[in-house]
Specification:
single chain, about 160 residues, alpha/beta, four-stranded parallel beta sheet
Length: about 160
């Protein structure tokens, strides 16, 4: 996973984070180090995609590497996933989708910083409740959206 924008102190703070607010502050610290235009890749994690969280995360990791190889300045949000996963245990009562706090109080707050200039969406983004939320929220905030085509890996962006 790309570490070039992460300093040791960022990683230390990530391990010590206790709340979504803590994580948003860390995300901001990392985002301001990324040159413009800054992008994030969205796609299925906990719902949709392959139907398997680990496989969905691997697909996102591979896709982030491909975008980076094409010169895209990516904010790699996957470093937050283990901590988000631990925090979400507290929200199991929010059925059928316990990830609403993650969307509203983590990703939503990151989008609101306006530090992201573009949000890329994987071709199967519509299968994910979270990615649909991110698409709608980014659109509402006026962040540029780019939906990748099925053969995007072979094409230039």
């Amino acid at each position: 996973m790309n570490n070039q924008y992460w300093e040791k102190n960022d990683l230390f703070l990530l391990k010590k984070a206790k709340s979504l607010k803590d994580l948003v502050k860390i995300a901001e610290r990392v985002l301001i180090k990324i040159p413009n235009p800054r992008a994030q890749l969205c796609g299925p994690i906990s719902t949709g995609g392959t139907g398997n969280v680990k496989t969905n995360i691997k697909n996102l990791q591979k896709s982030i590497k491909i975008l980076e190889s094409k010169g895209v300045n990516i904010f790699n949000h996957l470093k937050f996933e283990p901590i988000l996963d631990k925090l979400s245990i507290n929200w199991e009562q929010l059925k059928p989708y316990p990830d609403i706090p993650i969307l509203e109080d983590f990703y939503g707050k990151i989008f609101e910083t306006k530090l992201l200039n573009i949000i890329y969406f994987l071709p199967n983004w519509e299968t994910s409740l979270g990615a649909k939320w991110e698409y709608n929220y980014a659109n509402k905030l006026g962040i540029k959206i780019f939906v990748l085509s099925n053969n995007w890996k072979k094409n230039t962006l």
